[in-house]
Give the backbone structure.
Amino acid sequence: MVSFQPALHPQRVPLSGGLTGAAGQEGPAGSYATRGSRATSSSGGAARERQVGVGVLLEPFTKQRWETLSPGRIRRLFYRATVLATGAGLRRGRLGLMLVIAHVSDTHFGDDLGAAGGRAAAVMDHLLAMEPRPDVLVVTGDVADHGLPHEYDEARAWLDRWAGPREVCLGNHDVRAAFAAGLGVDPNAVLEVGGVRFVMLDSLVDAVDGRRVDEGSLGHDQLAWLEEQLAADGRPTYVCLHHPPLTINLELMDPFRLLDGEALAAVLTRHPHVVATLVGHAHTMGVTSFAGRPLLIGGGVVSAVTADSERLPQLWYGAPPSFALHLVDDDGRVTTHWRALPQS
Ligand SMILES: [Fe+2]
């Protein structure tokens, strides 16, 4: 398993260790320092440090009143006091934020219109210009359009612009061997960033007689592997794959969903620390529920797929490239902001 702990950012103040510990330390690739430190705050030691900090900042509270404060109230007071003391955080709307996931899907490098590279570049430009940048990049498949080596060369150059932690899923347009050779990515990786885990699944069904298979499947062995991974670690976990594991009322894509979605749901149901499932494939910005938790569709870089009821092309290549930012609060709550970028 690969593990990343975001380093402290010079403009951020860590929750643990008081108000002076982060000064002068440079985080990699503009990562969120306060989120990194908050990611470790569930330990007893860090929690005690947090309370010490609050106590110092909130001297006017009597001991009796202090003891009646709920944990949530303490947390809000602490954030407020931190902002007042440092001026950091609130102006960016980042207070309480632990981790930001950049979720990009369906780049389709090498597409027949020749537009994929520019659209993917626009998304990466946007992510790299964020300050602070997201903590982790998750790409949920269909990296290449035809699964050709030169398409993965282009994709690798695009991915390598991202210096932070990243993981990539296989999609139905990908070709397993070329994907592995071109990107050097293990399709069944587990990534840990700041105390949050990402389990990557491979839902690609290999081509039959040279014909691409657009439906997805995980299979018994991979589901057993997933079960092992989830049982081995109880930290908050996002399960990532290409195919939506259920219908999403999108006529063009629903027939090509994950075929063993019910078996996946059965695994996730046994592991309540799975926060959400991240998918691609549908080329739309959407959310539904799956196994009692959010299922978040990461948009589509190369195009959008629209519903039959809309007066738009079903495969809309004029749509702006879109992606998702999943914002994880330090109480575990996840908020998704989808973004559609202007086209140059
Ligand atoms: Fe796909």
Summary: The pocket of fe (ii) ion is lined by residues 142, 171-173, 242, 281 (CB under 6 Å). Confidence is low (pLDDT under 50) at residues 6-67, 82-92. The longest helix spans residues 71-86.
